[in-house]
Amino acid sequence: MEECFVSTNDKVKIALNHFKNGFEEVIIVVPGWFMTKDSKAFFNLSKAFLNYFDVITMDCRGHGKSSGYYTFSAKEIEDLKSVVNYARKFYKKVYLMGFSLGGGLVLIHTAKESNIDKVIAVSAYNSFEKIENKMWKKQAWLPTLKKAELTRWFSIRPSLIPHKKIKPFSIVDKIKVPTLFIAGKNDPTVCLWHTKSLYEKAVCDKYFEVFENGNHAEDLFLDEPNRFVSLCVNFLKSPFRNSYNQTSKEKLSLSRL
Predict the structure, then answer these.
(1) In contact, 194 and 126? CB cutoff 8 Å
(2) pLDDT at 144
(3) What is the C-alpha separation between 215 and 89, in angstroms, rounded?
(4) More exposed terminus of the chain, fewer Cβ within 10 Å: N or C?
(5) Buried b (16+ CB within 10 A) or exposed e, 87-122
(6) Is the dihedral of CA 120, 72, 111, 127 positive or negative?
């Protein structure tokens, strides 16, 4: 694994871990708020996917070893844009996988840019203002305690200045590449309806998977790693045609809502 840094158009330094295994395809992994590339969850996730693709996992601004202050999706789109430009120098295919606020970022980027081959949005939100974030619920605070890492927590630097944000729901229908939406039925932070509404509005080749006992974002991987990795790898490796939308598996997922 090689740690690298890229600069954004607004002069923020973005840190990334570049896991190389000789593949011509790469997944760019975008963590959400309060998570970093060096957190145990995302380091293990990166290693799991390294069996199938090269992996680039990034720190958004205001997190980990990146500079700047976190703006809760307003300016982080510049961070992702710089990392994608870096990846395009080395790979024939570039995939995006974003979690929570990172899930919104990968959708926004792909709707605005034409340099992505496939997208996976995990626990993606409809709009930032509508995020429920029920931190008092057991499903929220217990996973947070299990992932406690003081070094990571002390690296987080949020911006105190309000910034105008793009709503993923307002732009998701501009995406033209295959997109996989993943959500946890018991998510207390970004409730299931958020990701479902994005899936329903999208007009690209699309697939929707609900984890019946799942919570939020990276917890879906931590709780069911084999299922999560297999689902994502099958999606990224599949030729994926319009007819794929009508599989019985997708209908089963939708029937559970």
Answers:
(1) yes
(2) 67
(3) 36
(4) C
(5) beeebebbbbbbbbbbbbbbbbbbbeeeebbbbbbb
(6) positive
**16 has which bridge partners?**
4, 58
pLDDT tens digits, residue range 198-225?
A: 999 999 999 999 999 999 999 999 999 9
Instruction: Report H helices in the chain.
Output: 40-49, 76-87, 101-112, 138-146, 150-153, 168-171, 192-201, 218-223, 225-237, 248-255
- Structure tokens that stand for 96 in this block: 């995006």
Six-digit token string for 237: 């490796």
The encoded tokens of residue 186 equal: 């018991």
Token readout for 250 is: 């997708």
User: What residue ranges define each of the domains in the chain, with the CATH number in brackets?
Assistant: 2-255 (3.40.50.1820)
Summary mean pLDDT of the chain: 91
The answer, yes or no, to whether residue 131 has pLDDT greater than 80, is yes
